Amino acid sequence: xxxxxxxxxxxxxxxxxxxxxxxxxxxxxxxxxxxxxxxxxxxxxxxxxxxxxxxxxxxxxxxxxxxxxxxxxxxxxxxxxxxxxxxxxxxxxxxxxxxxxxxxxxxxxxxxxxxxxxxxxxxxxxxxxxxxxxxxxxxxx
Length: 141
Prior knowledge:
- 82% of the residues lie in helices and 0% in strands.
- The chain contains six helices and no strands.
- It is extended.
């Protein structure tokens, strides 16, 4: 990694002017080029047009999430950690013969579950408060 970073430093320092010029390229030219390189990259991995369609669908989803001010990081985290979580959950339930009490049997596991439940409740409470405040406002009008 050190060698790679040194090589990047040696290559990029003289090319700073070029990278600044790339930033001056208008968006209407830069966007189609970025899209073209993404499509070529996705297609070159497995030669699959399905993956191009999948990339475009997730691109539109990402655009909509940004437009409506949703965070994208939790979704990416869920895609990465979801399969590992499912495997671990399946293994735990197999060890306990299907009983969820295994998640509360040990002190650290029970503490983690309690903290998780409290965080979920804390995230839901503001929604109920907004609904409760909206009901009297409707009755006044």
